[in-house]
Each structure stands twice: as structure tokens, then as C-alpha cells.
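Milestone M4 deliverable, item 7.
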Amino acid sequence: MSAPIKIDARLLKRLPALGDDEAFELNIHLKSDSPTTVLWGASGAGKTLALNCLGGFSEPNEGRILINDELYFDAATRVNLPPRLRRCGYMFQDHALFPHMTVRENLKFAASAARNSSRLDKHRRMNDLLEAFELTDLSARKPAQLSGGEKQRAALARMLVGDPHLLLLDEPTRGLDARLRQAFYEVLRTTRERSQAPIVLVTHDLEECMQLSDYVCLMEAGRFVQSGLREQVFARPANLEVARALGAYNLLPAKITALDPSRDTCSLDVAGSEVQGRYIKGRLIGDQGHLCVRQTESRLLPNIGRREPNQILLRTIGVTPSAQGTKVLLEQGAAAVVSETEYAHLRGEDVLKLEIPPSAVYFIAK
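Output delivered:
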């Protein structure tokens, strides 16, 4: 038996042109049974508008929102639950803690939304969350007295204290340094363990998307250009535009030169080199397109000795520093990140071998 769909939301929201802002239309179908769904895209793609529709802060022109079999919105039957009845925990970009209240008072206010809970149960839940998010010693402080990371922990605890049925997070690590980001990711994992509510998180940070998502929706101009389980989406970008937008791939012009379904193999001509991979269904010999390989799957070797299959000769264009070591830039827009030790053996080479494992070969047709 398949898992029940946690989120099934068809959203059509039109925003008219206003001043210098052009008219905008959000038209998506978000359907996910995964614990954490991430909406990824550039600014202006419609990610926050989608969250606001789910939370009840913006009413779609058409559509239907079903969360864990509970109807939140249906344009056809004029059902539109107000935010207070949707039981959504919403973490805004600025955390939206009440500045005149202490941390405990913020939680107490949010706990009042929890129906069918006694005062004693709410009190216990507040204390439990304060302890779980390491806020007990900070509970008497107001938001202005908290650091960025402490505000985020407080916002998460407040979001959970009302026993929400859906968690909405809008760019929760915006403005945080790398250390605080990693700390937040750990806190969010704790949140997932404590709550069965599905999470919808908005980000434009690809690394954050990779770390937090189970299911990914890639957005552009109010539409989903691709959606699916994280591993499937990043292993198989839907088209060249999606791969370029993600910015994590080497994309090299390629032509299919051989197809053997009995052996489950194919061969591509890439920059005059033979690249072998898995059989490509639905394609013909002679089809042109691009070899798409994640940069982390590509390996750089010095141009010494015989060139083997899946080794592409490319000229070096330059190098740039990287948090993981050194990023070597190659012709045709290719690149690879190597450690400082590896780069010591490549330094000064005009031409390098870019080695692609057969399991990583993915062909995007024109």
C-alpha cells in the first residue's frame, strides 16, 4: 500500500501589475508524501507566495489545498480556513517573534492556538520545547537580547508549541554564517523527530536544499520546472535549462555514437573523446545533446600516458579558491574541485584529462 499523500495543493494565484512590478501568476500542483519538501528557485520565482497560500495569508484565485486529508481551501466549494484554524507553524524570514514578549511569553501565546489541550499539557509542552532547543536559560529574555541562532531556535520552538499540522519555513537560514547554518540544520532535524507534521521549506541555496530536502520542487516564474525525490531530481535534471540553473554540473556537447540495449551500454562522442555509459532509452545513434555530469563526479588527471575511454582532454582556463580546495576551470564551461594535494600534481598543466565514471553519464537531448 502506498503512503498517504501528506500535501496535495493545486494553487493558481494571479497578482496584477502594480507600479514597477509586472503581473505575476503562480500555477503549481504540490503533491508530496515526504517529511520535508523544499521549494528551490531564484528570488521572484513565487516560493514565498506559495507558502502564504498554504498558510492562509494569501487566497488563491483557483485551486484546492488538502493537508493530511484535511481540507484547508477549495475555490469550487468556497472553503477557505483562516490561518488560525489551519494549525500551520510558520517561520518567517525575520522570525517574527513578538519583540515586547520574552521567549516564554512568545511560546505561551502560540500555545493558546492548540485546541483540545489542557493548561497543564500546554505548560509541560512549553517546558519540554524550551529544554529541547536549549532555551531554558534564555526564556526570560526578549528577542532583542538574543543572537541570530537563538532567535531561530526560539522561532522553531514557538512554531511547534501549538502542535501544528503543517510547518512552513521561509528561508530560515538567511543571514546566518556557516557555523550557525549547520547548527540550525541539526535543530531542524530535531524538529523532524519531534513532529509528524510535514515541512515545506523555501530556499534559493542549493547546498541547503541538498541537506534538508526529501522531495524537491524546482521553481521558475511561478511554475514547477521539475519535482521529485531529491536523488532523482539532482541525478536527472529535466532539461539543459534546469541543469544550468542548478549550477552543479559539467555540461558538454555530445553525440550518441553507439547504443547496445543487450549490454545496457552506450557510447558518446564528447570533444573528440569516447565516453561510455548506460543504455539511453528512446534515443537513436546520431542524436545530439549534452553530457550532463555533476562536478563532484568528475575527476581531473594530468595528461600523461594513454588516454582511456571516459577521459576527455580539455584546456585549462584558470583556477579559483574553493571551500573544498581548488576549483579548476576548463574550456566549454567545465570545472572540477580538487584538494590542494591533488592540485599540486596538476599545477601548470595546459591540458588535463577530465575523467567521467560510466555510472555518472547522463545524456540530455536537444
